[in-house]
Structure formats: structure tokens, C-alpha cells
């Protein structure tokens, strides 16, 4: 095998592990799901495929959150995010997804200021990547609206929820 053939074989195996993780998650067998996502992440990391690595670990964190504490999920996602940010530009979809996942987990812990911090980071990236009128931006806005609602800042909650609704309506998802 040449170096490129090894990477291809490795990434094919990683993709299979990732797909197995997704299948177990669909079946709500989250402990097995987390194991397979982690197997994929190890291979992606070894091959410096940082976006795929982060997405695998993000999914592992989401699965872990189903059978362990939210803090465990946050730790998994933050560790992967920190390593990924040392190796790729912040403005990409994998980083935006990690930020939104962290925001969601902090929101579940009623740590709404931290949730907002991550939601706004994701929003910034999504706007830069896709412009204002896209599903990812709408998702950021609705999450920001919910976090403000949980903080009883209802004017801001309505403002961001309305922005989300405008986008959903404009791209005909409602």
C-alpha cells in the first residue's frame, strides 16, 4: 500500500464506523453509537481529517449525552473542538455545528449565557458561509430565541424567534 491507499482504506473504515454509530443512534443504542463514532474519530484524527474528526466526536458527545451526564458530552465536544481549532480555520461547517451543539448542551443545563455565547459563534460562521437566508442561520436564531426566553428576556426572545421564522418562511420550510 502506498500512503494514499492507506488513507483511502482508513477513511473507508472510518466512514463505516461513523455509519454504524448513526445506525445505533437511530436504534437508541447510544453506548454502542458512541463507541463507533469514537472509532471513526480516531481514524480521522490519525489522517488529519479534522472536520470529519470533529463531526465524529460531536456525534459521540450527542450520543454520550443520552446515557451519561451533559458534562461528559460537553467535555467530549470541547476537547475535539479545541484540537480541531488548532488545525483548521474556524470558519467551516464542522466548527459551526460544534458550537451549536455546545450551546444546546449548556442550554439544557440552564447555563444560558454560555449557550448564547456558543450560539452567537455558530451564527457568525453560518452567516459568513451561507449568507443570512439559510436553514443554518434560522436554526441559530431560534436557539438564541429560546435561550433568551429561558433568561426571561422576552423582547430579545421574540426578536430572534421572529428572525428565524422570517427565514423559514422565505425559504418555504413552514
Molecular structure report:
With 174 residues, the protein is mainly alpha-helical. The protein has helices at 3-26, 30-46, 50-67, 70-85, 93-108, 112-130, 135-150, 154-170. Helix 1 packs parallel to helix 3, helix 5 (93-108) packs antiparallel against helix 6 (112-130) and helix 5 (93-108) runs parallel beside helix 7 (135-150). The chain is globular, with a radius of gyration of 17 Å. The termini are far apart.
Keywords, separated by commas or semicolons:
174 residues, mainly alpha, 8 helices
**C-alpha Rg (nearest Å):** 17 Å
- Approximately how much helix is present in the residues? over 70%
| Major sheet summary line | none
**What is the straight-line distance between the termini?**
51 Å
